[in-house]
Design brief:
This protein is 22% helix and 27% strand. It is α/β, with parallel strands linked by helices. A hairpin with a 3-residue loop joins strand 7 and strand 8. The longest helix has 21 residues.
Length: 683
């Protein structure tokens, strides 16, 4: 037996199938190969067995995770079914099985030296695949490893039998915090979409979602003028109708009820992802000052006046209402970009909220790193600082030396903005050059890297106060900038590379992936990620043709809710009214009037610069990619665009991408005829 580095690429998958583990995302810490001619044969008869003494340990329990794993295994293998889960403490080798248990004996530490309960061991023989974890969450990560190996095999061809190499391995993450932040304060997202993001991120061993749940757009001409009340702001947690806080939610149709949010947390937790909510104060608080104008700083409606006697009691009342909703051990109070001249008020507020939230719920708090130039006060070291920029004294190496726990969200590496950013400041997805080779020492990014140009600003990987990292996707331009699926397109690859770098680091473990290996396996794993279908992938009726109809008797219902790009949708229409919907689906609707695409989740319309003539046939050919959508009509291209208000300084046109509205044809009052309809997937 020998130890080896995971260097095999997907191109050599079949000849080396029984000889080694395939590179995956994130990479496995260590694997010692068994016999190169033996393998675990996975078929639809495989038995999932949960060790009886461990089955009900934890919340979610080991059995809960096993049930989700069973569904995922069916999804990845495409078996029609597998046997029911068995709870037993002595599995028999007579039947090939996957055995899940607790009690891993090897000591697992994060790079900072703190003990990790996320480590697991796995043993693969001809009849058994055993995963033994420190806790149920550790076993869950072990099942992700198994599923990814299966996906890489089935990505080639398995003909009903999947072979995984024999051997023993161990794995554990380098950092405790491996998360992503979604700005839901300036863009509305339904809970079901966020749940799907949790499920997808979990496949790459991301362990938390930081949900930025209150904020406002920033446009100085509105904010500092007479029309400040008209600027978009939102608070996403919906208090009961009878609550004294009901006025804090201006858009109840853009907020989550307690039941919806509880289900969201449950779904994320069932996939190993903790949901960390953020209510942002005392800055970014326009939604509060619209409700209670007396609490704002005069002339700065988005900033709360902390010296007003009702301000802090009001904020405490908000947390009192919603703390019982939150299952996480931590919450974020935001606390960024507040007036530096009021540093003492700010520091006193942060410390008071830290003590208050702890006393009320036992939870600790996080804040964004903010320059607070006080010579008399300092923020409590009980507060975790989420670094994002380098103003003043918020230098991470200095913070950790002072005893602060730090999370890396440095914007130069880890910030994205929905659709675009001001002057191209942030990329569409995480910059791959920076992630793989952008550190000042020439290595790739890792959570200890805060600067690409000055290594003195970087901590060591084993800094005891470095907790990990959170990448962030902001939505500075509001609801009309993107559809939810466009946000997924920005996150999909980014979450995978981020999962590798926060689990393994760069240059710390010999097993770390190369960029070439990542590029080879990512498309396979992205397509296989179970439990959700954010790609809106479908099985066409034949070839690449999703469906094809010569004539339509409206309304017509299909078996396809939504189809992701790239695709071509072609049809001929003769409308007798400008009302009605030509095509409708889960993620989009195409209206007769101005051939407008509608995003059903935000109810935003995106008009095409074309009007269908009544009582006259027009042939329309719609081409969509993940970057854009256009119609070809009479030989001319017409693009679906949005107009973004960039900080109130200038307007910027941007392309829109829409999933095909494929579930219904000729609905919601459509009048006329539709014929020669075809929906075809493109490569």
């Amino acid at each position: 037996m020998r130890s080896f580095v995971l260097q095999t690429t997907l191109g050599f998958l079949l000849p080396l199938l029984a000889a080694c583990l395939q590179p995956q995302i994130p990479s496995v810490k260590s694997f010692i190969q068994g016999s190169p001619t033996s393998a675990f044969r996975l078929t639809s008869r495989v038995q999932i067995i949960v060790n009886a003494p461990d089955a009900h340990t934890g919340s979610p329990s080991l059995l809960d995770f096993a049930r989700t794993f069973k569904d995922d295994l069916i999804s990845v293998t495409q078996f029609s079914h597998i046997p029911d889960i068995i709870i037993d403490s002595q599995p028999s080798l007579a039947q090939p099985h996957i055995f899940l248990s607790l009690g891993a004996t090897s000591e697992n530490l994060y790079f900072n030296g703190n003990p990790s309960r996320e480590g697991y061991n796995f043993n693969i023989s001809t009849r058994s695949y055993t995963i033994t974890g420190m806790e149920p969450i550790a076993v869950w990560w072990g099942t992700r490893t198994l599923l990814q190996q299966v996906a890489l095999v089935t990505g080639a061809s398995h003909k009903g039998v999947i072979e995984l190499p024999s051997g023993t391995g161990s794995d554990s993450p380098g950092w405790e915090v491996r998360g992503f932040m979604l700005d839901a304060g300036r863009h509305w997202f339904e809970a079901s979409f966020i749940a799907d993001l949790c499920i997808y991120a979990s496949f790459f061993k991301i362990q938390s979602l930081h949900l930025h749940a209150s904020d406002n757009l920033w446009n100085p001409s509105f904010l500092y003028g007479q029309d400040w009340r008209k600027l978009y702001s939102a608070f996403r947690f919906q208090p009961p109708a009878y609550s004294a806080l009901s006025g804090i939610v201006p858009l109840r149709n853009e907020s989550w009820s307690r039941e919806e949010f509880t289900q969201l947390q449950t779904t994320c937790a069932a996939h190993g992802v903790a949901l960390v909510p953020e209510i942002d104060t005392p800055g970014h608080s326009l939604v509060i000052t619209k409700w209670k104008p007396e609490l704002m700083i005069p002339g700065a409606p988005d900033n709360l006046n902390l010296s007003h006697p009702d301000t802090i009691p009001t904020i405490k009342s908000i947390w009192n209402e919603f703390l019982p909703w939150f299952s996480s051990l931590e919450v974020s109070i935001g606390a960024d970009e507040y007036e530096a001249a009021l540093a003492d008020d700010y520091i006193s507020f942060v410390n008071e909220m830290s003590s208050y939230i702890s006393s009320q719920s036992g939870k600790s708090i996080r804040i964004w790193g903010t320059n607070e130039p006080s010579k008399t006060l300092s923020i409590s070291t009980n507060v975790t600082i989420q670094h994002w920029n380098f103003p003043g004294d918020t230098i991470p190496v200095e913070l950790t030396k002072k005893g602060y726990k730090v999370i890396n969200s440095e914007q130069s590496f880890l910030y994205l903005d929905g659709k675009t950013s001001d002057g191209g400041q942030f990329p569409t997805e995480l910059n791959q050059d920076l992630m793989w080779s952008g550190a000042s020492d020439g290595g790739g990014w890792a959570p200890n890297i805060f600067s690409s140009t000055d290594s003195s600003n970087n901590t060591s990987p084993n800094d005891p106060n470095l907790r990990g990292a959170i990448m962030a996707l902001w939505n500075d331009w509001g609801n009309n900038a993107t559809t939810p699926l466009e946000i997924y397109y920005q996150l999909s690859r980014s979450l995978a590379v981020f999962g590798e770098k926060t689990w393994t680091g760069s240059g710390v473990q010999a097993s770390a992936l190369t960029r070439d290996q990542f590029d080879r396996v990512y498309p396979v794993l992205n397509a296989a990620a179970p439990g959700q279908n954010l790609n809106r992938a479908v099985q066409p009726q034949r070839g690449n043709v999703v469906y094809q109809y010569k004539t339509i008797i409206a309304p017509l219902r299909t078996s396809f809710d939504s189809v992701g790009p790239p695709y071509t949708l072609k049809f001929t229409v003769n409308p007798t009214s400008q009302d009605g919907v030509l095509f409708s689906g889960r993620d989009s609707k195409l209206h007769v009037r101005s051939l407008a695409f509608e995003d059903p989740s935000t109810q935003k319309f995106y008009w095409l610069n074309f009007t269908l003539l009544l009582n006259q046939e027009t042939t329309v050919e719609i081409h969509a990619t993940r970057e854009s959508t256009y119609a070809l009509i009479n030989g001319q291209k017409y693009w679906w665009l949005t107009n973004l208000d960039i900080w109130g300084e200038y307007m910027q046109l941007a392309n829109m991408s829409f999933a095909a509205p494929s579930s219904a044809i000729g609905v919601d009052g459509f009048a006329g005829r539709i014929k020669d309809v075809s929906l075809v997937l493109e490569s």
